Amino acid sequence: MTEEIIIAGFGGQGVLSMGKILAYSGVMEDKEVLWMPSYGPEQRGGTANVTVIVSDERISSPIISKFDTAIVLNQQSLDKFEKSVKPGGMLIYDPNGITHEPTRRDINIYKIPATEKATEKGIAKVFNMIVLGGFLKLKPIVGSEFIHKGLEKSLPARHHALIPQNEEAIELGKTLIEPVFTL
Amino acid sequence: MSNLDIVKPENLVYQKSKVLTENVMHYCPGCGHGTAHRLVAEVIEELGIQDKTVGVSPVGCSVLAYNYLDVDFQEAAHGRAPAVATAIKRLNPDCYVFTYQGDGDLAAIGTAETIHACNRGENITMIFINNAIYGMTGGQMAPTTLLGMKTATTPYGRDQKLNGWPFQVTELLAQLPGTYYVTRQSVHTPANVRKAKAALKKAFENQKLEKGVSFVEIVSSCNSGWKMTPVQANKWMEENMFPKYPLGDIKVDGELVKK
Amino acid sequence: MAKELKLMKGNEAIARAMIASGTDGYFGYPITPQSEVMETLMAERPWDPKGENYTGMVVLQAESELASINMVYGGAATGKKVATSSSSPGISLMAEGLTYLAGAEIPCVIMNAMRGGPGLGTIQPAQSDYFQSTKGGGHGDYQLYVMAPSSVQEMYDFVFDAWDIAFKYRNPVLILTDGAIGQCMEKCYTRDNVPRWTEEERRANAPWGTWGKPATRGHNIITSLELESSRQEVFNQKLQAKYAEMKEKEVRYEALNCDDADYVFVAYGTSARICMKSMELARAKGLKVGLLRPITLFPFPTKQVAELATRVKGMLCVEMSAGQMIEDVKLAADCKIPIEHYGRFGGIIPTPEEVLEAMENKIVK
Lengths: 183, 259, 365
Prior knowledge:
The structure holds three protein chains of three kinds.
Chain A: E1 2-10, H1 15-28, E2 32-37, E3 47-55, E4 67-72, H2 75-81, E5 85-93, E6 108-111, H3 114-121, H4 127-138, H5 144-154, H6 163-176, E7 178-181
Chain B: H1 3-6, H2 33-47, E1 53-57, E2 72-75, H3 81-91, E3 96-102, H4 103-109, H5 111-120, E4 125-130, E5 133-134, E6 140-141, H6 160-163, H7 169-174, E7 179-186, H8 190-205, E8 213-219, H9 223-226, H10 230-244, E9 248-252, E10 255-256
Parallel strand pairs in B: 1-2, 1-3, 3-4, 4-8, 7-8
Antiparallel strand pairs in B: 5-6, 7-9, 9-10
Helix pairs in contact in B: 2-8, 3-5, 4-5
Chain C: E1 4-9, H1 10-20, E2 25-28, H2 36-44, E3 58-61, H3 65-77, E4 82-86, H4 88-103, E5 108-114, H5 130-134, E6 145-147, H6 152-169, E7 172-178, H7 179-183, E8 185-190, H8 199-205, E9 221-222, H9 229-249, E10 253-256, E11 263-266, H10 269-284, E12 289-294, E13 296-298, H11 302-309, E14 314-319, H12 326-333, E15 339-343, H13 352-364
Parallel strand pairs in C: 2-3, 2-4, 4-5, 5-7, 6-7, 11-12, 11-14, 14-15
Antiparallel strand pairs in C: 1-8, 6-13, 10-12
């Protein structure tokens, strides 16, 4: 198994930490992982994106241009990465703020209204975990017990009290994800 | 009375410091480096710290100081002695660490290293030989060269519009909270030699206090570079250098000396 | 720090390995994309006896790269394990210090996370400092021992290896990486802390050090100055003999799928990782492609390239530069087979697909 993922959105949406938690969960399950952010001026506001690879084998390139899954959280990222999904791959997007829907018909497309639900429930801080839950529902590449361990490892000890809230958000995300177009 | 009658232990009034090697110094007759080296050696010997002392020599006439001083020594790149000494002291806090630098080394190419070592308050001794000229490379202008002074690169005299002003780096360093003792001395008369030695001794002893940099400037002549006889050079130094670089303590025990 | 499996950035791995390998001092100056090295050290506080990760290591932020490399020069001359890190423009500033360190034969470790140049350039990853790292950089006939990690784990492990080589040969060791390996996170097995050398160990391992002259020996002098040309020549011959011994004994490389290969990529660091992917894509298409990854850039795996050149049909050198390492590859292969370069630069990282396309267009044809 090798899953190559791009997660992209606005800075502040928790894109990098979502990737880190997923990667750390992979480490806990003794898989090979890679987390490669865009860095530099790009990280000052604007868009942020991170490549996450989880695999049973040694990971080759940290820089890839085609992904099994693209998780896009704003219009710019959707425009940029829709074309980067491998044929037969998967695109997940949050419909909030999306004016141009994805158009490809050779990939599976899902949406998750995470922004809307997080705002409604007043849990904006775990917005990214709702999205992660949606992804894990479709591609359970890491077991939930390892997600728990990944949260423990990637969150500083002073935030460990928030782990249950993160896990609830992941469970919520699993119920929110819905197909837009499937092959 | 023969020579053998005179050379007896009970007649001994002076001997070369054990911290000086047997090597014959390469300095020009009349140069202040030889005397300054001797004072450093005597101070190290008197303090009993030969086995704990590490010196850092510069690029300049005193680049070969390690040939004359019998302590562990490191030759630094031009201007970098204060950075080199910083790490020696930080990693070996029990060692007595000193730099020995000329005006070009300390106040031109190494200005940043000098200021920042002083500003961090490194517990080192910095010895600054100021003769207002680049001696080793053949007498070019130094940052401390006086206005109107002729050098190989100011053949018509230093012009402020072209070359800026003589740099009173010692006064500048005294303003920094990281310097604990800042003084200006000379070694051209026996009285000045005695004062300079006392200053150097204090500057080494201060390392035990861990209060910051002890900085000793020695205004020196360079009769070769100045194109004078040694006697003329000393007289010229008194008349021209001392007004711009007045002798005496500038900062003692962390307090600026009121004039 | 106990032995552990962690997810960490390459830069963090360098910092943690410095602490764990008994490094005595780190002197650095911030520059993207490697500032996390010093940031990690400052956060870990290895100098603080009350800290969780106390080893007694000194960490200091210098006023410039000029100062930091000269602090390395001063500290390492006392026989202690002293390191620094920087990125391309900072390494250019350090060039003076590097040649002094090599000329005075001072063991130390330097990390360069390469970014695109020339000049201030870009902060994105590049491999355009190969010449600077392996052919000089500073003045004079000197060599650094240059290691090129291609994963976070290697970033960590190579710090330990670097200390062994540095003291074995009394030579500076450069860990040459780039922003991609520095910034990416991978899993990394950390090791138990190796205690810093005791005073007795320091004196035994570095009898040449300037740590204060005891009555039992003459004064130690650390210098690269020799006014007598005949003696300078003898010294240079000694240095060259040392470099020749490194070439004989300390070459490291990785060969993947080279046994049955018709074509071979030659690439190091991040480029080698990209080529691994291109190789997978090629093999899936039925092209017998292998990868030779130099791990040491000096000494270069010349014999391995020469041997491959007798049995493969062509090689593609892939570098994030305009073509630098290819000169060493061509010299090693001695014109026996076609060898071409493919590179992107200025901070652009090639994709595995374009690298494979280059192999097909330039070599396979």
